[in-house]
Amino acid sequence: MALLQGHTEAVLAVAFSKKGTTGSCAFVISAGKDRTIKSWDISSLERKSADNKPEVEGTMATLSSRFTVRGHDKDVNALAVAPNDSVFASASQDKTVKVGRLLPQQPISLICRST
């Protein structure tokens, strides 16, 4: 379990990656009323012991976002990650859908916009 801190207002959307190096989720993206989209590396939270139980039960990690993009002019209400984890789409109350690139070790980059 982890606490992902960084948004300055309410979080309205969360999307999980489809694959990680061990078959588990590698990252999460979140968005909300602060009009930002954040990327979080959660691969370290998937560590399990030999009997497939979490290594430390009852503890909560606090993570900081890897990257932040201000992608919309109003609240961001929806997010989706492509099955190959390379792109995402975000939808906003500003009546736009934006598509961004999610490359390892690089900031999120918006690549197109639809109105």
How is this fold's topology laid out?
Blueprint: E1 2-5, E2 11-16, E3 27-32, E4 36-41, E5 61-64, E6 67-70, E7 76-81, E8 87-92, E9 97-101, E10 109-114
Parallel strand pairs: 1-5
Antiparallel strand pairs: 2-3, 3-4, 4-6, 7-8, 8-9, 9-10
Per CATH, which architecture?
A: 7 Propeller
Largest sheet: 4 strands, antiparallel
What is the helix tally?
0
Order of neighbouring strands in the sheet with most strands? 2-3-4-6
Q: The CATH topology, please?
A: Methylamine Dehydrogenase, Chain H
Q: Beta fraction of the residues?
A: over 45%
Strand element count = 10
CATH class: Mainly Beta
Helix content: under 10%
The pLDDT mean sits at 79
Q: Work out the count of structural domains.
A: 1
CATH homologous superfamily annotation? YVTN repeat-like/Quinoprotein amine dehydrogenase
- Helix/strand-derived category reads mainly beta
Using only CA atoms, what is the Rg? Answer: 15 Å
Order of helices and strands: EEEEEEEEEE
Low-confidence stretches: none
Distance between the termini: 37 Å
Would you kindly provide a written description of the structure presented here, covering whatever features stand out?
The strands form three sheets. The chain has a four-stranded antiparallel beta sheet, with no helix packed on it. Strands 7-8-9-10 form a four-stranded antiparallel beta sheet, with no helix packed on it. Strands 1-5 form a two-stranded parallel ribbon. The chain has strands spanning 2-5, 11-16, 27-32, 36-41, 61-64, 67-70, 76-81, 87-92, 97-101, 109-114. The N and C termini lie far apart (37 Å). The radius of gyration is 15 Å and the shape is globular. It has 115 residues and is mostly beta strands. It has one domain (2-114): 7 Propeller (Methylamine Dehydrogenase, Chain H). A hairpin with a 4-residue loop joins strand 8 (87-92) and strand 9 (97-101). 0% of the residues lie in helices and 46% in strands.
